[in-house]
Design goal:
Strand content: 15-25%
Number of helices: 5
CATH superfamily of the largest domain: Ribonuclease H-like superfamily/Ribonuclease H
Helix content: 25-40%
Distance between the termini: 51 Å
Radius of gyration: 19 Å
Structural class: alpha/beta
Number of strands: 7
Order of helices and strands: HEEHEHHEEHEE
Shape: globular
CATH topology of the largest domain: Nucleotidyltransferase, domain 5
């Protein structure tokens, strides 16, 4: 499988008569906790944006630059998020689909064709799910970049990288706590709820290991 990100899927769709092609992707699905964010983007075929690729392959500075260009030159774009409480109530798969559907509904232009990273949505629009779509389709890559940028602009709990997927210090989640509750990241045996999604910080009452 080629990992070269290009517009070949968009060109193939246009040859079939589709003209308003939206790419959709999410960020935060593999995170320990926090929201899942999805973006939908309809790129302008007459305005090429150089460097589009899977957001995970881009350094933050480059990702931010590309996000600005996408917002400036895309025909339409939208971002939506599903919070941790709703993820725990549904599951991460359904929450990701709901976030994508919400972003799709917010687009100023109604698309007639969807390119989606791996998932299918319950909408009456022609769609093509692509495995590893964020590194194969420029439209999905653009959505990946907007979703990741939006997610990383949130405040991260102590000891975690901005996207909350990869801890920069030990993080221990109490079994059954779900994505909304984190146990103090500095104490392997801590029994005090140390962080949660709304506080984003260690609890002053943390007793440390017990």
């Amino acid at each position: 499988m080629s990992r070269l990100c290009s517009s070949r899927f968009e060109r193939a769709a246009r040859k079939l008569g589709w003209t308003r092609i939206a790419g959709l992707d999410e960020a935060g699905r593999g995170a320990l906790f926090g929201p899942v964010v999805a973006a939908a983007v309809i790129l302008n075929p007459k305005r090429r944006i150089v460097g589009l690729d899977d957001s995970k392959q881009l350094v933050p500075e480059r990702r931010t630059q590309l996000a600005e260009r996408i917002r400036e030159h895309a025909l339409a774009w939208a971002v939506a998020e599903i919070d941790a409480q709703r993820i725990d109530a549904w599951n991460i798969y359904q929450a990701s689909r709901q976030a994508m559907t919400a972003a799709l509904q917010q687009l100023a232009i109604v698309p007639d064709y969807l390119l989606i990273d791996a998932l299918q949505l319950d909408v009456l629009i022609e769609q093509k799910p692509l495995i590893k779509g964020d590194c194969r389709s420029v439209s999905i890559a653009a959505a990946s970049i907007l979703a990741k940028t939006h997610l990383c602009h949130g405040r991260s709990p102590r000891g975690l990288a901005p996207a909350w997927s990869h801890p920069t210090a030990p993080v221990f989640v109490r079994p059954g706590a779900g994505r909304g509750l984190l146990v103090c990241g500095g104490h392997p045996n801590c029994t005090t709820p140390g962080c949660n999604y709304s506080l984003m910080e260690c609890s002053p009452g943390c007793r440390g290991p017990k």
